[in-house]
Automatic annotation (TrEMBL):
UniProt subcellular location: Endomembrane system; Golgi apparatus membrane; Membrane
Similarity annotation: Belongs to the MNN1/MNT family.
Protein name: Uncharacterized protein
UniProt KW Metal-binding keyword: no
Pfam families xrefs: Mannosyl_trans3
Keyword presence, Transferase: yes
UniProtKB keywords: Golgi apparatus, Membrane, Signal-anchor, Transferase, Transmembrane, Transmembrane helix
Biological classification of the source: Eukaryota, Sar, Stramenopiles, Bigyra, Labyrinthulomycetes
Length: 250
C-alpha cells in the first residue's frame, strides 16, 4: 500500500506505466506493457555494456522523422524540439512499452512533470494548446534529451505476413544486447491469439525502395521483395536480419 488514493494521481490509461516505474520497490526496473512479451531471459540487459555506460536501454517505435502522419514528436517541425531545446535530427519515436532503467531521481521527476503537464499531453488538451505527445509515448526520450543525458535506443523489426502480394506488418519485435534474435514481441492488436504463427516475415526499414519516407498504411506491395523469413519459434531470421542500437548524444 503506497498510501495514495487514485484521485491524487492524474494518470489514466497508459500513463500509469510511468507511476509503475516511479513507485516500484526495485532500484533497477524493467517495465513491460501488457502487449510486450519477452521471448527469453531478459535479465542480461542489466549486465550489458550499454546499460552500464548510460544507465538505461530504450526501444524505438515504427514511427519517426521519415514517417507520416505518425511520428509527430520526431517530425522536424514538432514543438517537442523547442521544449527540450535540441535541434531536430533524424530519429524515431520511443516505444515506451519496454523500459530498462535505474530509478534516477532527477530524470524520473522530469518524466513525472511532463506526464502531469496537461498543456503538453492532455486528452483533450486545454483550449489553445495543441497536444505534443500521446500519453507516455515519448516522455522518457524527451526527458533524457532535456537533461542532456546520453541514451541508447534499439531499432525494431517489423513483423507480419504476405497477403495478396503485399507485406502486412501486424506486430514488431525488439532485439536483446548480445544477439539479433527477437527478445521482445508485441501482441498485434489486430490479430487474435494464438497469433505468432501468422508472423512469417520481417523487415527493418519500412520505406519502399527509392523512397525517403513512408506512411501508416499497414500493407505494402513494394516491400515484398525486401522481406526476410522469420521463425516465431526460434525468434530468428533466415537469412540473418540485422537490427541495431543507436547512441543519442547531446
Amino acid at each position: 500500500d503506497l498510501g495514495f488514493k487514485p484521485s491524487l494521481l492524474p494518470a489514466k490509461i497508459y500513463e500509469w506505466c510511468i507511476y509503475v516505474a516511479f513507485f516500484s520497490g526495485f532500484e533497477e526496473v524493467i517495465v513491460l506493457d501488457l502487449d510486450a512479451v519477452p521471448m527469453g531471459d531478459i535479465s542480461h540487459l542489466f549486465d550489458s555494456p550499454m546499460y552500464h555506460e548510460t544507465g538505461q536501454l530504450f526501444y524505438a517505435d515504427y514511427w519517426g522523422t521519415a514517417s507520416y502522419p505518425n511520428g509527430e514528436t520526431a517530425s522536424s517541425n514538432s514543438p517537442a524540439w523547442d521544449l527540450v531545446r535540441v535541434g531536430p535530427y533524424f530519429t524515431h519515436e520511443q516505444e515506451s512499452s519496454i523500459l530498462v532503467l535505474p530509478k534516477i531521481w532527477r530524470e524520473l521527476n522530469v518524466v513525472l512533470h511532463l506526464t502531469r503537464y496537461k498543456q503538453l499531453m492532455g486528452d483533450p488538451s486545454p483550449r489553445g494548446y495543441p497536444r505534443v505527445v500521446w500519453g507516455d509515448k515519448d516522455v522518457w526520450r524527451l526527458s533524457w534529451l532535456y537533461l542532456r543525458k546520453t541514451f541508447f535506443m534499439a531499432m525494431p523489426f517489423k513483423l507480419g505476413f504476405v497477403n495478396s502480394g503485399s507485406f502486412c506488418y501486424m506486430s514488431f519485435g525488439h532485439i536483446g544486447v548480445k544477439t539479433n534474435r527477437v527478445l521482445f514481441i508485441h501482441q498485434p492488436k489486430a490479430l487474435e491469439s494464438p497469433y505468432v504463427q501468422n508472423l512469417t516475415h520481417g523487415i527493418v526499414d519500412l520505406r519502399c525502395p527509392g523512397y525517403s519516407s513512408y506512411n501508416s498504411q499497414n500493407c505494402k506491395r513494394c516491400l515484398v521483395s525486401e522481406l526476410t523469413d522469420y521463425s516465431y519459434k526460434m525468434g530468428t531470421f533466415t537469412p540473418g536480419l540485422d537490427s541495431f542500437w543507436t547512441k543519442h548524444e547531446c
